[in-house]
Amino acid sequence: MPDLAAALQAVLPPGAVLGGGEDGPLWPSEDLPGAVPARQAEFARGRSAARAAMRRLGVPAAAVPMRADRSPDWPAGLTGSISHCAGACFALLARRSDYAGLGLDIEPAKPLDPDLWPVILRPEEVDGLSGPDALAVFVAKEAAYKAQYALTGVLFDFHVLSVQLLPDRFTATFQRAVGPFAGGTALQGRLIRTPRHIAAICAITAS
Description:
The chain has one domain: CATH 3.90.470.20. Helices cover 29% and strands 28% of the residues. It has five helices and eight strands; from the N terminus they run H-E-H-E-E-E-H-H-H-E-E-E-E. The strands form two sheets. It has a five-stranded antiparallel beta sheet with strand order 4-8-7-6-5. The termini are far apart. The mean pLDDT is 94.
């Protein structure tokens, strides 16, 4: 994981910080009723990463309960994103005065299952696309979705965003209006590729 941590640190948005998760107990109010032990441990690592990020940001570590929609309930004045997968767990955090929304997604560097392509990819995204880049589109859409959700609270499917890739960047464009985002609005993000993982960061600056 150190190679991924260094790669993420190198492209963090100004003013944002990264925290890594460790095994440990959940804090009061961070309940996950009915979850199996593996899910409890995964959830606890994510909350540990969030508190590590808080300390890096210079604010007191605090509990991060889960809202009814399953998104993190960040302490007042903060916004962030948590992502975990096999071998990686990180939280991205910033002050709301700097960013209206942040999105982080991390996935193992395995080609996206072709059976999922029609669900995730729009027709214009498929043309000439390779397996690794199909995964990159998926990760980019997840990061952009998480960033916008902090503003809109709107659930939508993968086809609402159309992604264009560059080697280390992406643009995610809304294909219809969602909350304050008009159709055609583009979100910019960074792609991070390591031998074991692919990750994406999307940041929406505060207006």
